[in-house]
Amino acid sequence: MSNLSIEHKKGEVNELKASLRNPAVERDPEKRREVVKRVIAYMTLGIDVSRLFTEMIMATSSKDLVVKKMVYLYICNYASTNPELSLLAINTLQKDCRDEDPITRGLALRSFCSLRLPNIVEYLQKPVEDGLVDPSAYVRKTAAMGCLKLHNLAPQLVLESGLVGRVRQALYDRDTAVIASAICALEEIEGGTSKVEKQLVHHLLNRIREFNEWAQVVVLGLVARYSPAVPAETFDIMNLLEERLKHSNAAVVLATTKVFLNLTQDFPTVHQQVYARLRTPLATLVHGGSVEQGYATLKHIALLAQRAPAVFAEEHKLFFARFNEPSYVKLVKLEILTAVATARNVGEIVGEVAEYVTDVDVAVSRAAVGVIGVLGARVSSAARTVADQLVALLNIGIPHVSSEAVVAIKTLLRRHPHLLATQHAPAGGGSGGGSGGGSSLAAAIGSFTRFAVDEPAARCSLLWMLGEHGEQIGEAPYVLEQMIGEYEDEPSAAVRLELLSATVKLLLKRPAEMQAMAGRLLEAATADTRSTEVHDRAIFYYRLLQHDVSAAKRVLTAPVQLPDVFVEERASEWQDKLFEEFNSLTVIYGMPSDRFVKPALSANAPARKVADEMASASGRAARAQAGAAAQGNGSCTGRAADGMGHAEEAAEEEEGEDEDEEEGEEESDDDDDEGDGGDGAQPATRAGGGCNGTAGASASLVDLLGDLSMPAAAPPPPLPPARLVLTPAVVLDSATFQAQWGATGGSCSWSLPFASAVEPQPVVAALGAHDVKCMAFGTVGAAHKFYFYAQAQPLGAEPGALFLVELVLDMGARAARATLKSAAVNALPAFAEHLKRLVQQTIEPRL
Amino acid sequence: MAASAVYILDMKGKVIIARNYRGDVPMSVVDHFARHVQESEEVDMKPIVVMDVATFLYIKTNNLYIMATTQRNANAAVVLLFLYRLVDVLASYFKEVEEESIRDNFVITYELMDEMMDFGYPQISEAKILREYITQEAHKLEAQRPPMAVTNAVSWRSEGIKHRKNEIFLDVVEKLNLLVSANGTVLRSEILGSLQMRSYLSGMPELKLGLNDKLLMESSGRRTGKGRAVEMEDIKFHQCVRLARFENDRTISFIPPDGEFELMSYRLNTQVKPLIWIEAMVEPHSHSRIEYMIKAKSQFKQRSTANNVEITIPVPPDADTPTFKASVGTAKYAPERDAIVWTIKQFHGGKEYLMRAHFGLPSITHGEDGGAARVEKPPVSVKFEIPYFTVSGIQVRYLKIIEKSGYQALPWVRYITQNGDYQLRMS
């Protein structure tokens, strides 16, 4: 439809207006229908016909059902722009709700409830109530849904009017469609929190065959929340529902799956059997229906496969990709293949995945290379084959494949460092070492310069290997030398950092070859103005080496203890959460619903909402006051440099949390961090504690900052802190908490390392026992986050000082960080120490 | 579940028709979708994406996007299936579902969308039932019949259906999915079977279907003297089939809906001999020419015949000047698909045919100038159709029709085996 004709049509709207008013048209039903139809046609084209509202409302009096439908559609569409005029339609709608024809009654009631206007709420209650006891099931089901619509408009009214109770009666209606509508309405109104009664479940399950397919999904959704009293009942339900797995509707099968999984959660052996039973129906869904359906099912299988890899291990061939499948399907299949690999099938899987390396889609191709690396790392027996496979891929001559292969080799070597040693080519590895024998990893890495690997991730991986295993790679110094030569042209700061680490590490291992070039690199890096981080790291290495080379050696080239499970291999901490929300978008996105459902709309999680708001509020506060907080650290703990680092980290993390949609990217970032962070940053802090005397420059840095922030916390009152006694009678609501948090200036913070994983609930309980109350807590990424508050015992008439606390237990960094705020600045340090003791006792009970 | 709104859009993402069910997602979010459609390449588009404030779930059909938005943690399977059902229903009303037919029938489309979903919850998706009270002839001004079957116990069939001639057609269709690796090992082979019915029976007929189902044959103690029994692995039935009966004694008994429907589908994971086997020998002489020798072999019984066999062999995109020599059928170069298409109208069982092809290659290839060489290796794919034959060996033993008026009805049964996703990788 061109613009011109739309303009033309606009002129015709006036014509329509005239026609609708024309008495001749009003009398002739055929003509009237034609005119109304044209109005709707224009509406469909996106032309604004809201000006015809009055005329259209007059047309509602028509006896013609099709005209009625069109007019109601029109009113629903434009009601929100004409709330006052809509009142004119109410009369007709009310009348139609009492029409003798059930279809008309249903239509009128449905449209009436769909107007979404607050000012008509009072007129709605009666028709909905009448509708619920209508002789026609069609009207009753519409009324049950109408009750939900009404609840969306005016929740209070519905709760007070007793409508909910009437809908609950409809659960025992003789018609199944009415029951299904009632379940939908109640589940949404009550947020899926009400207790599911045994009587109801049995009533529904006995009739399940009578429900239509969509209604079955609704019923099964409800049953999934039911927990039977005795095991026998569980098995009865499962026997009854077993046949549902044969239903041709995929949604019914998935809903049944969820019931089975939920029911057997407490019977581990049966649970495993259930997986096996579900395998076949799910497999059929993957290839039986549409591509979209297959994708959704595969996502669910991917989740199940993480839980019970063994079940799907025998069916691994089912997940082999076909050439013409869409990329998103191939990527999920790769995910599943990774999960189900075992020593027995890994050979076949690696061979198959290698076929995808040449896929047209770069994303699939990259993922395939990555998966090969991960398979090698996970299944030890395949490590050797995988190593050969990856070396072959280095030579394939496709830049992104070579790059990914380098990263994959790093993944493999991190888990199996011995591969390098056993495969090491005969000494020398001269200039042509790698060209002939593609089988030697060391030679392949050494001959890196032959491959144009210019992606930062690949270069970082390569450098990590050179630094970590340089003593086994003959050509390592030459590769580094070349890269050092190109230092100024290297755009990526991450690569430059990694180059620094690798060079220094190799210097300690092979000093003779490295000394000259390491000197050149340190000189260039300390003069690096592009990145402060690179510059600082270079200075740190320089000082460390200057201070004591043997200490540097001890710190930087200490033997690494291989952990049992790497961070990226650990099951997502969301897994249980995802499982709870099985058969929903949660599984497709791989993240809990509160991450993508707009908080304002997730009616069933008000508590979580508060937590979210507080997190973002405190995020803002933390950024705004980062400087002040850092200063607070200084006075509080006396470890300025350390505290600075943490404050910065905290601020950074807040930012991360605010924009954490891109989980995948974050994870890959983490990966890189481990490359440099694990080898560089961590020893750095350790060493920083060790060499107090040499930290001249950083001391002046501290002074500088101290001067800067002096005015912010201007009067440090020299009053001796009063003895701190907390009152158990403190109550605070979240709004006040947030307001106070934002308004309170005085803050201080501390941090505390800990060794073992901590659950959030015990912390809340432990602190609660000492009168530090919890406002909200939640888990964000790898960190538990808490908000606490406490109040000091009142002194005389004056209320005691109120303390607000944000505590973050970072499982990744194994550090607890707290930010404390209070208007009573002089009482703060005492409370901070008190809290620190409490937290320490809780998370490290042995100390 | 709960979809917020449903849209039908053209390929550019422009709205043809839309229905807002819940009003919790602004209708304008569709602009995000339009941008998404225009920006991303077709292959990469996931059917479920979250953008801005809403999740978009969509399917594609005949140059249309059928899309639903939601702001809640919806049940993806329900929403996607519903969209497919919507297309089915629309198709039953106006044959081809395409932009023009929807624009021509927007009133009915609105009516259907209104009836099929309420406040984001799917309601009725049986075209047969909907047809009873939403008809193109509804435009005659007469009183409507109340929708009996909407809330009937037999929700898929109305009372009082009449046909002059009582007939029922049953098609047993099997599709063979096959994936063969470059070295000739069968990586995967599965059979997807489907029993499709067209029922033109009056009244409320009771049907009973007997198959040579292995479990049934064994349970009834009947030794399968002639013909083998088939063990179906995963069976799915239309909702009209009494599943409990099947569980108990493997009887398939049902009251069929009127008209076309899929009675049941099944899947078999058994290894079968690939019905048509292809061996491709490729001899590339770089910078000058490339030669193909393709051997096609039919590995089914001689009395059967495969019709319309089409073998597609991929060739390099820069190949030119093709010449062919085929012992049977015709070979053609399809440059738009970078492939040779060899068609054989009738391929009898137990035969072997040969085809040779020769292409010229340019003396300078793009790949060696440092650009990305084309390295993906598309597989050989085969299309075929074998009538009067099921690869699984499944057979209909009887189809009984009982109606209380006692009419005689004629059951017609056909068998056919087709290619499904039939791919053989090239070395």
UniProtKB/TrEMBL annotation, chain A:
It comes from Diacronema lutheri. It is found in: Endomembrane system. One of its GO terms (cellular component) is endomembrane system. Keywords: Membrane, Protein transport, Transport. Belongs to the adaptor complexes large subunit family. SUPFAM superfamilies: ARM repeat (SSF48371). SMART domains: B2-adapt-app_C. This is Beta-adaptin appendage C-terminal subdomain domain-containing protein. Residues 650-677 have a biased composition (Acidic residues). Pfam families: Adaptin_N, B2-adapt-app_C. GO terms for biological process: intracellular protein transport; vesicle-mediated transport. Residues 724-840 form the Beta-adaptin appendage C-terminal subdomain domain. Its main location: membrane.
UniProtKB/TrEMBL annotation, chain B:
Residues 165-425 form the MHD domain. It is found in: Cytoplasmic vesicle, Clathrin-coated vesicle membrane. Its main location: membrane. One of its GO terms (cellular component) is clathrin adaptor complex. GO terms for biological process: intracellular protein transport; vesicle-mediated transport. SUPFAM superfamilies: Second domain of Mu2 adaptin subunit (ap50) of ap2 adaptor (SSF49447), SNARE-like (SSF64356). The keyword Protein transport applies. Belongs to the adaptor complexes medium subunit family. Keywords: Cytoplasmic vesicle, Membrane, Protein transport, Transport. This is MHD domain-containing protein. It comes from the Eukaryota. It comes from Diacronema lutheri (Unicellular marine alga).
